[in-house]
Request: fold
Amino acid sequence: MSTIYDKYQIIMGLETHVRVKSNTKMFCPCANAIELALEPNQNVCPICMGFPGMLPTLSAWVVDLAVRAAHAMRSTVQEKSIFDRKSYFYPDLPMGYQITQMYHPITIGWEVRTLIHGELKSFRIHHMHLENDAGKLIHVSWKTLCDYNRAGSPLMEIVTEPDFRSKEDVIGYLEELQKIMRWCWASDADMEKWQLRCDVNISVRLKDETILRTRVELKNINSFSSIGRAIDNEFERQIELYEAGKAPDQETRGWNDEKGYSTPLRSKEDAMDYRYFPEPDLLPLMLSHEYIQERTINELPIDRRIKYIEQYNLGADDARILSNDRTTSDFYETLVELTGDSKKSCSYITTILFSLFDASIEPISIVDIQSNVTEFARVIQLVNSDELSSTNSKRVIEELVKNGGKTDEIIDTLWLRQKNDITALEKIVDEVLANNASQVEEYRAGKVNLFGFFVGQCMKVSAGQWNPKVFTDLVKQKIG
Ligand code: ZN
Ligand code: MN
Reply:
């Protein structure tokens, strides 16, 4: 059954603020630590409070991470960018203006790519600029309290082109953005910790239209789970207006996730004049070609994800899991490099290691074992050369995770090395076949499922110390 909504399509663009993971605020030595439970206004100084005569100094650490983040979006870093003053009054803004980059942002253009339901999609970036954050207002009954601990904290604002056609697009992009920010260490981009915030510009139009209709900016979306709800609600609200012969106003609306609807914050008519002008207390930011080049990032999570699917023949889920974070991905890459076995390297991480981590009482992750990666590779090598059974390999891995050490020493201490002395093995096979002559006859007469019985008998006689694969080959040679 088709509904009025089916005639329309949704067009969205995003403005995302990502908090830079620097140790200080953007222009002063205060800690950039909003997630610490500090007393209100404990983490402030005359610079971020905008006292008269105080001068901002741009943090080199912020610039370093922003350039890395720009590379991760394949964006073009500008050798010259300029800070502007955006003047407005609001109680959470102690300086009376925000320092931002209006006309000459630090990077321009390019894209974030991601896989959505197996399809490679690319969302264009318009630009990214640097700016400082405002403080926080806390409303307590009839009073409003101001906490400036966050004021002056460094933000990257990433503005996209209107390339999003569904909520899956938006969520896919944000998840990839979060991944690449973590990948280049620029930010943890955790939405719940206010390290990533997203405003969505939404318009709708008939499916065969090419013009863009009036757009509405939706703010206050605070979690991944609320994005979908906010988008659905705005899509339907605009369509219902058009269907009633009206049109949405160009305005900014605030999403209320508890109530499940948005309310107007400000309309185009009362748009403020921010009186942008170049920040007189800061020189233009000049970056050398070498500085920019040194911070290049070669492979992104999406590149590795595609490589794992197309070249390493992994399933889509494994490829995604192994490319999610850089430590796991680097660990995996080293394993593949050392063993030449992309599939086993994958399963040893995703099944054996991850379940050991899950079962561990002490919190443990790849980070804790990454320095011992060659020993984990050695386990896979020994399994592949039939010197260690895959059952026993789990014991060795467990030991490596718990106590570290050397794979070969662990194997010899635990008596796990498989004996592949061929004459001894042949003797066992001959013995088994001689003792089960009637079964051999039945097998030769066509009862082929007895094959496993012979191998099982060989394993039994050898007390499981020898390798079943070699027995399989030998039995085949003798009676096949
Ligand atoms: Zn400060
Ligand atoms: Mn902004």
Notes: The chain has a mean pLDDT of 92. Residues 8 and 207 are 5 Å apart (CA to CA).
